[in-house]
Amino acid sequence: AVARGVHFGETPTETRGVHFGEGVENEASAAPAAVAQQVKTTPLSEQLQRELERISPQPPGPRQAQIDSVLAEALAVCRGACVELAGAGALQEEGVADALLPLGSYHLGVTLRYDEIDVLFVVPLFMQIAELPEAIFAELLRRGGAKNLTPAGSDGLLSAPGLRFELRGVRVKVLLSQRIPLLPQPRAEAIVQNMAAVFAHEASSKILSSVPNPDVFRGLLRFVRLWARQRGVYGPYLGFPGGMAWAVCCARICQMYPSIELSQLAARFFRVLSRWDWRQPLTLDGSAAPVAPPQMVASSASGALELSGSSPIMTVMLPVGAGIPATSTLTVTTMKIVQKELRRGYKMVQHVELVRAHWTDVYKEARFFQRHRHYLEFDFMATTEAIHSAWLAWSRQQLQELVQLFETMSSNIVTLRPWPEWVDFKDAEWPYATAVFLGLHLERGTGDGQQEGQRRSCDLREPIVKFLGAISAWPDAEKNANEFELLIKHMRTSELEQWLENRQKGVASSQGAAGTSINSVGNQARGGPMGTGAQLSITEEDADAAGLGSAPSETPAQRGGAGAFCGAVEGMAPGIATMFCGAG
Hints:
Blueprint: H1 33-41, H2 44-55, H3 61-86, E1 101-102, H4 104-108, E2 117-122, H5 132-143, E3 146-151, E4 162-167, E5 170-177, H6 196-210, H7 214-230, H8 243-256, H9 262-274, H10 332-353, H11 359-362, E6 374-382, H12 385-399, H13 402-410, E7 414-424, E8 432-442, E9 457-459, H14 461-471, E10 484-492, H15 493-505, E11 516-521, E12 537-539, H16 542-547, E13 564-566, E14 576-578, E15 581-583
Parallel strand pairs: 2-5
Antiparallel strand pairs: 1-2, 3-4, 4-5, 6-8, 6-10, 7-8, 9-12, 10-11, 11-14, 13-15
């Protein structure tokens, strides 16, 4: 049985009118007799450890040796760039790094076999960091072998300059930072960018030093990372907690319960976080910051991110500086999704303890692609791997604002369920193509100017146009004109099923094969048609009116009706074009 623990606040109420993720009523299917007997005789912690080794093994010896070799070369490249900028005597100056410092999941020891490796190169104070990324790029190109070179991009508030690249099958992100003395303690509104990566390294170091048993902590974090990825609640670029936020949560649970086993910690993780009173930010040291009153906003003394007149956003604080949240991109929409998944996780763990389910049921992949009637598909495409990588790097930053745009401009007509996973696929025209999907739930009620009984038409013009305006400002857009594109499509469940089936078979998709194309970026030079519609809207089917946007139970052949999704965006930057307007 789950040991009794501290209750933090009340269990959050269920989200009304919209269903995120899956229910739990039918998920905990009875295990076969042989499996059930094995479950009864094998300790739960041992079962969980076996599952982790099976589904998310640590990099084997040869792979780790390959990583070490690549990082050694990356260090040589960084030092070579310093020599190029500051002369041969630069390496003798005090402060030149003689090793790359680990960051994030690599520092915490929970990277999977093909995860990106995050490291820090400490730049001596006599050098200008702004000049170094270009010099490192040039040194990598001179040596050869590296590909997909892009800027590092921001990842939360501790955003540091740096770059990403792939070398001999290992993806690496090198961040650049300096140790500047006598600076005041960093705060959320005042972070020196040239020291941000040093703060990130300090944060992961403090996490490791704060837990009573690092190996047990790593086991819990590996399990939570696996669960979060499978359930679609991992990754800050679409508004979910990232790796450091989940690491702080796991470390706090390990601190609260220092002497219990891994399986018990997993249960406590879901139990404590699903009942946490989020007026109080979750901190590594458990400091009792003042509880904010209901009407306080983000500038409150507690540091909690909060909207006036609403419940506070889940706030997890980094163990560095003063009031720096690790969940800065979290929104009301994604907070509700995370909380629902935490409640589901706790219920499923209880089933595991009662031998009514297996650990695989806890982290079973969410049925996102069968859950909604309407989806938005964002296709990022390019002619070369290098342009595709650069286009994705820029797009990842712009996507961080997408959910917030919909919340601000269209929350009364539609609710999003983002799926934070990049899905590669084959396109008939573009050699490199990756998609991101958002589930759409049409809200109850009628829109402005609509009469009772009339089909609803959800106008999504504002958030889509705002997003296109931001993403079309890509600095390399003009240089890569005719070589990249973003195509946004509205898809229904049946169309998405066909798309997924084609992807599984390796069949190339074409722009007219499924869904209704809305707008595209980068298409003008390729001669794409310009849109002329005045709206970006979804018109509901009869089935939508009855089902309110949730996934249909009937087969695609049984579904009828037709929708429309059309739009136009004028006045974009060079290389930007709108594309289609048509009926679904």
